Amino acid sequence: MILTSFLVRNFRNIQEANLALSRGIHLFSGANAQGKTALVEAILFLATSTSHRTRREEELIRWGEEVAFLRGVIQHGEESESIECGLEKRKKIIKIDKRTLPRVGDLYGHLRTVLFAPEDLQIIAGSPQERRRFLDMAIAQIDSAYIPLLQQFRRALNQRNRILKRLQLTKNAEGMRELGIWDHTFLDYSTQVTRRRCEMTQVLAPLVRSFYESLAEEGPFSMKYSGGDEADEFIIRERLQNRLERIRQSEIERGASLLGPHRDDLQFILADKNVSVFASQGQRRTTALALRLAEAKLSFEKTGARPLLLIDDVIYEMDNTRRGRFWEQVDQSGPLIVTATSREQLGPGLQLTSIFQVHNGEIHSS
Amino acid sequence: MKQQPAGRDFRPLSIPAVEAVSRQLAKLPGIGPRMAQRLTYALLKREKKEIEQLIHALHSLANDVLRCAVCGNYAQTDPCPVCKGEGRNTKILCVVEQPQDVQAIERTGHYNGLYHILGAALSPIDGVGPEEIGVTKLLQRLNDPIEEVILATNPTMEGDATALYLQEVIKPLHIKVTRIARGLPSGSDLEYADEVTLALAFSSRAEM
């Protein structure tokens, strides 16, 4: 899967750029705040129709302009297709081969990317919600029924919470019976979500472990999903049911569901210590890199095509040894886009296919 | 480009009677202001007699249709013909969410028992609990010699929860409780089935 050409118009500070790309490593070089990250963000937007930096999409339209426009041509083996994305203040139109997509969700899979960005540190150091989102996104990439399932789960959770809120005010036998019904529904959906997250953790864990230990030369590193270790729906359901029964009283007192997929966490453990809590900044950064490397490898294994790697602003944080080990782990036979302030920042020994200079929103091949 | 003649007012003429009918029609589900106006003008084109027939039909709808005190269905008699048991198997009771569901089941011609209409499904976030779906009324009906209760609530999260709830409250009465099956629609293609339905059809497959 190669992005062979990419046109950007009025996106962030980029007025217009038309790039010819190919397999291999492409460096976008320039001082800070010139548009390197904007370019990476534009590619990610073409792939997922979301930005990793903002939820207010109108911010992406260049100041003073009405419409931002992106077009990419993607080569899959012998075949190629085009993705176009037009973004207005309150409207987004995505076309594949000039045909408008009925649902934005249908865009997934046409251009697979894996982004390495400074914001990834939030997956490790941020709230459990960030880690759950990472898992959910990883599952959604390979299971199209997962997002609808997650929505159903949230609805079941809301229904159950409403009953618990009512019981918090007045406790009666009728309400307890209703709670029993919504327990059942909540358990059904919780079990299905937990099983999938559990499976994804099991698939990712050995990959992340091997990448972490190679990058840091320390270990042992492991990953654990707090919702359960075994991806067996019967076991998951029984365990959650038993735990719910034990905390019933406190759930009623608090008027909310205190256990389930909305509270679970993905834990990273380095030598028996939780990385999110105890590790150094360097160890957390390495964990984030290992996660993204694992995501890329999994995407290749599941689809048979190498995803486009976008490596933005993570190189400068590394010393020479770490940087060397990082490049050893990155699959350099696939397409790769990397940003840096200079060629030297990438370190020696890297075979670059092309170098682009980014200056004041303008991008030129050099 | 054609120029609009200057000094002319292009606002449409206001016809209060037309607007009044349009406003009323626009209150109906699925009808927006434009469709309402179109329907109103379509009515205007009809003969006066036809409009009067419509008025008469609506008048009858408002005055002659009532809820059957036994099953909760719409009818012009109370109890409704089904609840009077005329030619029906009074030992089977089918529980549905809405009166329209009765029409759907009747069209199959495969069911000859009684009905009970809940009017809604349990949904705490919409403020619908057992009281709102009239559980007491349903339980009262089970004092009659009923042998089987068929739960035909919708196959949604709320419909399933309602079925589960009813099954629990009916269980102590030692009456057989069944739930309608779910799976693939007949005459359809497997490839067009959504993932959830297909997964369910697989998990509830039957030996041949």
Annotation, overall tally of beta strands of chain A = 15
Number of helices of chain B: 7
The N- to C-terminal Cα distance of chain B equals: 73 Å
Q: Strands of the biggest beta sheet of chain A: in what spatial order?
A: 2-1-4-5-6-7
H/E topology pattern of chain B: HHHEEEHEHEHEH
Total strand segments of chain B: 6
Total domain modules of chain A: 2
How large, in whole angstroms, is the Cα Rg of chain B? Answer: 24 Å
> Which structural category do the helix and sheet elements of chain A fall into?
alpha/beta
Distance from N terminus to C terminus of chain A (CA atoms, Å) equals 25 Å
**Name given to the CATH homologous superfamily of the largest domain in chain A:** P-loop containing nucleotide triphosphate hydrolases
CATH class of the largest domain in chain B: Alpha Beta
Rg of chain A, rounded, reads 23 Å
**Which CATH-level-2 architecture of the largest domain in chain A?**
3-Layer(aba) Sandwich
Strand order of the largest sheet of chain B: 4-3-5-6
Question: Overall 3D geometry of chain B?
Answer: globular
The overall pLDDT average of chain B reads 90
**Most extensive chain interface and residues per partner:** A-B, 20 and 17 residues
